[in-house]
Write a structure and sequence with these properties.
279 residues; alpha+beta; 6-stranded antiparallel beta barrel
Length: 279
């Protein structure tokens, strides 16, 4: 307390000057319309700038929460789209009545990517969800833009994904315009490009055509983007095109993924095994 009094006594002339200046400015602003309007406009401008900066900082610090919310919403939308597309497929024949359980067989779990490889011949991805969250080996993995890979190993809280950028990974893929089905397989070079093999050269293939997952797989819902046709070549000595796709998923900037669970996969696999044993 004594130090405060001593400070005031030592600086009394300066403090009186500041007080009188403040009082003078207040009286000018109060009694002069022009300077009053100028003061309030200027103060409002800087207050608005300060609030905008504060909001920007606050939004930046909450980006992780915002992205997580968007990823959860996308998972819900993926499930809805998959259900609607299977409820009555566009190419279904007249009189076809789909089973409601079949249409709703896919569910989605949001996961965050914690490690991602793109520069190896056999790339894998690590996510922050495991068996404790219902994840199991064999489940498909997609992003907001397209196919990512398939679950290979799981621990309680983490899973390893075999990326589509892996020499042993293939996915059944359909060209939208021609309805021709082939297999997307990575040649091990550019993480933005993938080959589409086993497409007959006796059908028409269009550059820029979309390539999506076909109905002929049990891991991914049909219609998930794989990529777009980048180039098409014909080898005279072969019966298939050499097609290169521009991948729909940007693996260098992969943050969130959706693990796809086929509720009826076990039933399908049991039938396949029974078929194999009776051959």
């Amino acid at each position: 307390m004594l130090q405060l009094v001593d400070f005031i006594v030592r600086n009394r002339f300066f403090l009186v000057f500041v007080l009188l200046e403040t009082l003078s400015i207040w009286m000018v602003v109060r009694n002069n319309t022009y300077w009053g309007a100028t003061y309030f406009n200027t103060s409002n401008y800087y207050v608005a700038k300060t609030l905008a900066l504060s909001n920007s900082v606050s939004e930046y610090t909450h980006l992780d929460d915002i992205n997580a919310d968007l990823a959860s919403e996308n998972a819900h939308l993926h499930a809805l789209v998959a259900t609607l597309s299977q409820a009555k497929p566009l190419d279904a024949p007249a009189g076809y009545v789909p089973d409601s359980a079949f249409a709703e067989r896919f569910s989605y779990t949001v996961a965050k990517v914690v490690d991602n490889e793109t520069n190896k011949p056999n790339n894998v991805i690590t996510i922050d969800k495991g068996t404790a969250h219902g994840i199991a080996p064999g489940m498909g993995v997609i992003s907001a833009t397209g196919v990512v890979g398939k679950v290979r190993f799981c621990s309680e809280n983490y899973s390893i994904i075999t990326s589509i950028l892996h020499s042993q990974f293939m996915v059944s893929t359909k060209l939208v315009r021609s309805n021709e089905i082939g297999y997307a397989k990575w040649p091990g070079k550019d993480p933005d490009l993938i080959d589409l093999v086993d497409v007959s050269k006796y059908t028409k293939v269009y550059k820029g055509d979309s390539a999506v997952t076909s109905n002929q797989n049990s891991v991914f819902p049909p219609g998930i983007m794989v990529g777009k046709v980048e180039s098409v070549e014909v080898n005279p000595n072969q019966t298939f095109y050499n097609i290169v796709l521009q991948l729909a998923t940007d693996f260098r900037n992969l943050s969130y993924v959706y693990v796809v669970k086929n509720q009826q996969l076990g039933e399908q696999e049991q039938l396949k095994q029974r078929t194999e044993t009776t051959k």
